[in-house]
Amino acid sequence: MRREHGGAESRARCDDPAGSRSAVNPDDRVDRWLGDLRDTLARAADLADRGRDAFDVDPALPLAFEALSNRIGDLSKRLVHADEARFSHLVWRQAARNRDFVVHHYDRVDRDLLWRTVITAFPELAARVQAEIGSGGHV
């Protein structure tokens, strides 16, 4: 089977879980991404509720937070690119930059900073997501 690369047509299929060639409504995508981001941030909060001691002794927790940082940053990037005016607050770009650092410099991730990001920056972003959803979103 041949894989297609690039082009608007293949991007549209990637955005459409059914794989159809129908046009995707940009508002629907934004709503879906906001919902995904809300759910991902809730997972991060659930894991953070285990506390700092668990984070320090369970090697899976920092790895989980790195993976969640990747997803959160990717979704934030998508939202900023979809509507720069609506997602202009610095917190969206900070999440994207955090993702880039964690993904590309995983060997330099500071555990204390990762923990502070999860317990401080993620809840701030979650509040922004809820505000966006509550301001007329269809999520």
What is this structure's SSE topology?
Elements: H1 7-15, H2 26-48, H3 52-57, H4 60-82, H5 90-104, H6 111-134
Helix pairs in contact: 2-4, 2-6, 4-5, 4-6
Q: What form results from the Cα inertia axes?
A: globular
- Stretches with pLDDT under 50, minimum 5 residues: 1-13, 16-22
- Got a strand count? 0
Which range does the strand content fall in? under 5%
Q: Which series of helices and strands comes N to C?
A: HHHHHH
Major beta sheet summary: none
Structural class, judged by helices and strands? mainly alpha
Distance between the terminal alpha carbons, to the nearest Å?
36 Å
Instruction: Give me the number of helical elements.
Output: 6
Give the domain tally: 1
User: Helicity range of the residues?
Assistant: over 70%
Let me know the average pLDDT: 87
Description:
The protein has 139 residues and is mainly α. It has one domain (25-134). The protein is 72% helix and 0% strand. It is built from six helices and no strands. Helix 2 (26-48) packs across helix 6 (111-134), helix 4 (60-82) packs across helix 5 and helix 4 crosses helix 6 (111-134). The longest helix has 24 residues, at 111-134. The model is unreliable at 1-13 and 16-22 (pLDDT under 50).
Structure described in brief:
The chain has six helices and no strands. It has 139 residues and is mainly alpha-helical. The chain has one domain.
